[in-house]
């Protein structure tokens, strides 16, 4: 949802940076892999060891590299199909590492099984939300939108971990329960979008 409203504003900031990086000889794919590797390493190192605030800033900072690879592709004047697949795969890897690391913190450090269960639900539903869109697009259908796309999932999760890291009690479990509910709604929204798109295509074909 934020993608719709914030894309133009974000591009005004990231596009000049992307152009600078391309002139420096870097490629969008290299930026994708670098940002993902660092986000995964930061999440798996910092969250399970209880460093919630540091983990929040590290993961958020390197997640921003996901914005730069698109800006670099635009500055270069073209993207590639491989780059599109790589970007999507790396997003899933980074999201899985983040939610897995937070689940570990919930289980081992906080000893909060409810929060851990909510985190695992969010992990699965986050993958399903993205999968529905990918499969719909492969079938020539539309499944865009929904309350919590990747940006919203990251924001809600990292706000929770960041506040907990600052000493706000129960911030993580509140964020995860909220995200779990919104993720269920988003899955349903995407299935409805696919159903509407399929019906429209059937009418056009008939």
TrEMBL record:
GO cellular component: plasma membrane
Predominant place of localization: membrane
Topology in membrane: Multi-pass membrane protein
Gene3D superfamilies on file: 1.20.120.1760
Chain positions recorded as Mg(2+) 2 binding sites: 66, 87, 91
Cofactor(s) this protein requires: Mg(2+)
Recorded catalytic activity of this chain's protein: 1,2-di-(9Z-octadecenoyl)-sn-glycero-3-cytidine-5'-diphosphate + 1D-myo-inositol 3-phosphate = 1,2-di-(9Z-octadecenoyl)-sn-glycero-3-phospho-(1D-myo-inositol-3-phosphate) + CMP + H(+); a CDP-1,2-diacyl-sn-glycerol + 1D-myo-inositol 3-phosphate = a 1,2-diacyl-sn-glycero-3-phospho-(1D-myo-inositol-3-phosphate) + CMP + H(+)
Pathway participation: Lipid metabolism; Phospholipid metabolism; phosphatidylinositol phosphate biosynthesis
Pfam families in the cross-refs: CDP-OH_P_transf
Cofactor note: Contains a di-nuclear catalytic Mg(2+) center.
EC number(s) per entry: 2.7.8.-
Localization, UniProt: Cell membrane
Binding residue positions for a CDP-1,2-diacyl-sn-glycerol: 29-32, 70, 74, 80
Active site positions, chain numbering: 91
Cited function: Catalyzes the conjugation of the 1'-hydroxyl group of D-myo-inositol-3-phosphate (also named L-myo-inositol-1-phosphate) with a lipid tail of cytidine diphosphate diacylglycerol (CDP-DAG), forming phosphatidylinositol phosphate (PIP) and CMP. PIP is a precursor of phosphatidylinositol (PI) which is an essential lipid required for cell wall formation.
Record note on quaternary structure: Homodimer.
Official protein name in the record: Phosphatidylinositol phosphate synthase
Species: Labedaea rhizosphaerae
């Amino acid at each position: 949802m934020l993608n719709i409203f914030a894309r133009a504003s974000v591009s005004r900031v990231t596009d000049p940076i992307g152009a600078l990086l391309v002139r420096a000889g870097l490629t969008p794919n290299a930026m994708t892999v670098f940002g993902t590797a660092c986000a995964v390493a930061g999440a798996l190192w910092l969250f399970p060891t209880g460093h919630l605030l540091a983990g929040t800033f590290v993961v958020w900072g390197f997640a921003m590299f996901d914005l730069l690879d698109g800006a670099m592709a635009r500055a270069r004047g073209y993207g590639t199909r491989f780059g599109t697949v790589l970007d999507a795969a790396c997003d899933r890897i980074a999201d899985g590492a983040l939610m897995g690391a937070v689940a570990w913190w919930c289980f081992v450090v906080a000893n909060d099984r409810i929060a851990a269960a909510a985190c695992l639900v969010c992990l699965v539903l986050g993958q399903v939300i993205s999968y529905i869109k990918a499969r719909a697009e492969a079938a020539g259908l539309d499944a865009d939108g929904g309350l919590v796309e990747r940006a919203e999932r990251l924001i809600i999760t990292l706000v929770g971990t960041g506040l907990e890291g600052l000493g706000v009690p129960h911030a993580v479990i509140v964020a995860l329960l909220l995200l779990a509910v919104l993720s269920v709604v988003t899955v349903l929204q995407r299935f409805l979008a696919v159903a509407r798109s399929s019906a429209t295509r059937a009418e056009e074909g008939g």
